[in-house]
Amino acid sequence: MIDFQGIIEDIHEDLKNDINRGLVASYIPELFNIDTQNFGIHVKHINGNSYAVGDWSIPFSIQSISKALSLSLVLPIYKDAIWERMDVEPSGNPFNHLSLLELENSIPRNPFINAGAIVIADMMVSHFKNPKQVFLDYVRELSNDQTINFNYNVAKSERLTGFGNYAAANLLKAYNNLENDVDEVLDFYFHQCAIEMTCEQLSNAFFMLANHGKCLQQKERLTQSQAKRINAIMLTCGFYDEAGEFAFEVGLPGKSGVGGGIIALLPNHFTITTWSPGLNEKGNSLIGMKALELFTTKTNLSIF
Amino acid sequence: MIDFQGIIEDIHEDLKNDINRGLVASYIPELFNIDTQNFGIHVKHINGNSYAVGDWSIPFSIQSISKALSLSLVLPIYKDAIWERMDVEPSGNPFNHLSLLELENSIPRNPFINAGAIVIADMMVSHFKNPKQVFLDYVRELSNDQTINFNYNVAKSERLTGFGNYAAANLLKAYNNLENDVDEVLDFYFHQCAIEMTCEQLSNAFFMLANHGKCLQQKERLTQSQAKRINAIMLTCGFYDEAGEFAFEVGLPGKSGVGGGIIALLPNHFTITTWSPGLNEKGNSLIGMKALELFTTKTNLSIF
Amino acid sequence: MIDFQGIIEDIHEDLKNDINRGLVASYIPELFNIDTQNFGIHVKHINGNSYAVGDWSIPFSIQSISKALSLSLVLPIYKDAIWERMDVEPSGNPFNHLSLLELENSIPRNPFINAGAIVIADMMVSHFKNPKQVFLDYVRELSNDQTINFNYNVAKSERLTGFGNYAAANLLKAYNNLENDVDEVLDFYFHQCAIEMTCEQLSNAFFMLANHGKCLQQKERLTQSQAKRINAIMLTCGFYDEAGEFAFEVGLPGKSGVGGGIIALLPNHFTITTWSPGLNEKGNSLIGMKALELFTTKTNLSIF
Amino acid sequence: MIDFQGIIEDIHEDLKNDINRGLVASYIPELFNIDTQNFGIHVKHINGNSYAVGDWSIPFSIQSISKALSLSLVLPIYKDAIWERMDVEPSGNPFNHLSLLELENSIPRNPFINAGAIVIADMMVSHFKNPKQVFLDYVRELSNDQTINFNYNVAKSERLTGFGNYAAANLLKAYNNLENDVDEVLDFYFHQCAIEMTCEQLSNAFFMLANHGKCLQQKERLTQSQAKRINAIMLTCGFYDEAGEFAFEVGLPGKSGVGGGIIALLPNHFTITTWSPGLNEKGNSLIGMKALELFTTKTNLSIF
């Protein structure tokens, strides 16, 4: 029997002195002003047990982690029609690059680069009258926690500074890969990214991906095949242009965000969420990456 | 003594049967509905003589030709500070590509790719309270014709469909190479491109570039050095990714627009404007290119 | 208990009528003249059991599958020093493209694009007096079969037509990422790719990667961590620019070759080799890809 | 009447103190060991007069300047068939980049990037039994000087270190845009670049391009149209990715080489050659560029 609690406490102890070494995202004040001392880990085992250490109960901006959640919401609705508008290949490029998008006629490489996530957001806007509320309700249900909410200041700041996303959305529109108005789609997208969740809430929300599609309440949210596919995309594309490195060092499907959060999981076993706001040069949490590497080494649990 | 009138009449006769072979720009209805039968040539000699044939007195949408005019307005104001925000190298890429722009940190390759022209437009918006009126007055003075005006429907259609330009402007903004609001800059830019002029008006407006900077009224608009530099940029960058071909086949500095117009000039000798709406696959007037090639061959006048 | 033998027989039956739909590699006569009717599957279970159907005992050219074997030979020798000369990120580009290589100063994206495999070959040449014999002995030992050999005609044909590889090797040399002579390194590389093996021999040779580093004879060839890392690279980079698709559809680490072979594996469970020479447009065996997709669907065994 | 002798003496005086500021090409010892103090200018007027100052009579390695000479030799033979194997557009990229070449299916952008010049060399090898002797004889005739010769040590050093050129040639071969053996073509190419000439000899050799195709001895080497076309290519592509800058600052067709030489010309007026081994970061002679800029400013002679 693996002592999960002991292991994450050891990791927390080992790494907490390195917390200040990364750089916090600086493009909006709400992220820049986060206390870099925050460091939390939360594990949700498939058998229902929870293990946690540090600042696992403080909400933070989930940012790009939301892309995996919006994909999981849209996939059962649009099914394979999604893949007519984007691909599932790693991008091999930093996350904000438009170059490949243009060269490839506005077919985003995968649903986790910004352009791909914007197309997913476009599907949300096309399919739902009130996509923001639908998405928020979905995340609350998955996490079994009605307190989860948007940080409207973050959404507003993203809107005021998100020129790269406006560029991407307009490029998609220019190539007929965006059905709705650029402003309407991005309004949803910026709110989706601006949800705040704790490590615990994220571990719970992603439980379905470790549990063959069934969420915490054992309700089938995804077919087994859909869960498997999202996991595959998380492994190959979940960490910007550091996806190969993460698969290599950690060996788990996962998704990171510039708010400093990382969610990872081992099918049939557990989900794990780490939060530490300091980022490495690729935009992934520096301490979170190390914590997950230590976790798979110490538990000897990885997909490989 | 060269018989300019005879030469352009011969060229007009030779080519008029090929008029229908190109394709008219189709992205906005105002351009798409142009009668492809239009074909005009107008030559303005440095000695004041004019020669004309065909539809030289019908106004058409000058589109990208306006980029050379806005550069000529901004250059005496901003001088070399312009080149801190863009380069003077050929792009080697189609005119709407954002890739290079992103790879090169939003320093546009030259003032004639859309992104470069948008930066010039940004300078207009920064420097003038009413840039649209200033630009229109400037063009009217150069052409000595107060009837020149914007086609507001064209400007509106460009705004409604110009997603590629919105993408470029937002990308410039993301990299801090745009001082003003994206919408404000593009509003000016779309009007600048939507001016309508005749072949004669264009030949007159560009007279200063063949005349060492002095316009039709012999007023110094540009220093000799500035005129020379704009000519150099027109030669190397004036025809999208067909600039080398134009230099090779025609051998004159020039600028084309998707409205089917081409202005070209030989310093100390003449300006020449052709108009035929059918475009080749690179977006340059098919018949216009041929007419200019014939013109330099028959007159034996080129810079090379 | 899963009926592996029944499952692969069903798959073989289901797919054998589609055998002729792919295209055989045509760049060298030895590959072009392969009988496309060949179709074999071989499974080696971690418990020692074997299951096989069709042409599993006919040797074929392993081609790029050899890249995983050479990496496994070099990794315990050079250890992390390997990653100073190449990366572990997916390339996001077709397998023969030099562009990224040049843009990234000759640091190949991963050990499975040709340029990366050539750097691994360079390490072999630097470290061993007779790298060809060392490599052959290694493969024979892993497979427990001394009959395995090079096809010298294939190696010779590759040398006479491998201009793309010469281009890559010279580019590496130009950027100081090749220690030995281009010709010497490529001579080894072409032989490495020209080894012929059966499905059974490949399933046996890759056994160590499903068995935490211990080969068929239970000798430790790789540390557990090294085996895990090679698996991670196979998952993210093993199928040219179709790696994401393979992870998505199949969900196993694996490696393909233009000879029509594919090896895949599930750690702790099995290795599986398929062979069908007809390729899809990405250069992977068309029927092999489908067979593996059916296999993971029917057995419900994948890493996700 | 312009005082050419006085002007170039002034320029020489003005710039000689800046001679040491550039960096000498360091990839082969023969170029690296050049005395950076060398600085020569030579003007050949269309009327037959010559003007010279400084080290105009010392031979130096012409390097890429030879590309314009080989093009002028091949053009009358292959005529427009040349343009089926390469284009005439500026590359917009540094001179040794293979990326565009690969993306564009091995059609070099123009005859002055290395890949394009290698295709021209391939034509020489296809058409002549002894292309090296033919080329040397051609250059000697143009310059009216039988003392011109290869520097065999330079050719040998280029061969031993020219991995980038081997990469380009192999890539061309891979895409069927090279008829002969890579080694044979590059042997010619390295010798072509290794010719040594003085400023005077270069001014004389390029006389035909300023004289409508007729060489110093008034023999027609090129048709007027062919001369015009080579001039057009020199203007748009003659200075690596600084061609736009050169057109902008100098305004003359020209060609530079990493040996520190630059040849430029004004049709109907003159050829001018400068030599100063220190290079700027783009690989063009730092002092040579400045000297030519001063020359066109002081004489007020440029094509624009």
TrEMBL record, chains A, B, C, D:
One GO MF term: glutaminase activity
Statement: the UniProt record of this protein carries the keyword Hydrolase: yes
Keywords from the named record: Acetylation, Hydrolase
Top enzyme class: hydrolase
Amino acids binding substrate: 64, 114, 158, 165, 189, 240, 258
InterPro entries in the cross-refs: Beta-lactam/transpept-like (IPR012338), Glutaminase (IPR015868)
An example Gene Ontology biological process: L-glutamine catabolic process
Pfam hit, one: Glutaminase
Catalytic reaction(s) noted: L-glutamine + H2O = L-glutamate + NH4(+)
EC number: 3.5.1.2
Quaternary context: Homotetramer.
Assigned protein family: Belongs to the glutaminase family.
NCBIfam families on file: Gln_ase (TIGR03814), PRK00971.1-2 (NF002133)
Protein name (record): Glutaminase
Taxonomic source organism: Pontimicrobium aquaticum
Organism phylogeny: Bacteria, Pseudomonadati, Bacteroidota, Flavobacteriia, Flavobacteriales
Gene: glsA
